[in-house]
Write a structure and sequence with these properties.
The protein is mainly alpha-helical. The chain is about 75% helix and about 0% strand.
Length: about 200
């Protein structure tokens, strides 16, 4: 059973790595196709590094959740090692994703405006990040709160930032990672805790 489970985990990992590479290639191709004359040699490299943040979170979260679900289904609980990963994964993933989201506010400083106006624009652009950071702080020791908070945050991101077919990539780099962070908080809340034995009457 262990051999079969580790083999299926390996297959899952290979599939997710292939999806990661294809996603990265698709994003870089879309950027190049939008303006091939403007694209410098170093831009795909920088884009790949930055886009790797949400994509690794996306596919890594899927891997952890599927492996944890299989362990829980087959053994009745997750192993202590996986439970530690599940505990820290949503918190670290949320911090990295908030860092990624905050990078989009830096384009404010390329505008020609007074410093105070630039600072105001920077703060306004970072309101979603600040709000999610407060949610993370409140949910740090309360995984149930993290589950609900990031589920709502994912729904709000989908509502505000996925309006048409052109904004569908936002699903992949913003909405799905946020929803998977909610899933990781759920796993920490429900799966990573030791199950109390059922008393037979």
């Amino acid at each position: 059973m262990d051999t079969q489970r580790s083999q299926s985990n390996r297959v899952l990992l290979i599939v997710l790595v292939v999806l990661y590479v294809l996603s990265l290639a698709a994003f870089n191709y879309a950027n190049w196709a939008a303006d091939p004359e403007f694209m410098q040699w170093w831009m795909p490299l920088v884009n790949s590094v930055l886009l790797s943040i949400p994509l690794v979170l996306l596919y890594g979260s899927i891997y952890v959740l599927v492996v944890a679900w299989r362990e829980r289904r087959d053994l009745g609980q997750v192993s202590p090692r996986l439970a530690r990963i599940i505990h820290w994964a949503p918190r670290i993933a949320a911090i990295l994703l908030l860092f990624f989201i905050s990078l989009f506010s830096l384009d404010v400083f390329s505008m020609d405006a007074p410093p105070l106006e630039l600072l105001g624009g920077f703060l306004i652009h970072n309101l979603p990040t600040i709000g999610m950071l407060l949610l993370l702080a409140f949910a740090w020791k309360r995984p149930a709160v993290g589950f609900v908070a990031f589920l709502v945050a994912g729904a709000l991101f989908a509502f505000f930032f996925v309006r048409d077919a052109e904004s569908l990539p936002n699903l992949l780099i913003f909405v799905f990672p946020i929803l998977l962070i909610a899933g990781l908080f759920y796993a920490d809340w429900k799966w990573a805790r030791p199950q109390s034995p059922v008393l037979s009457m």
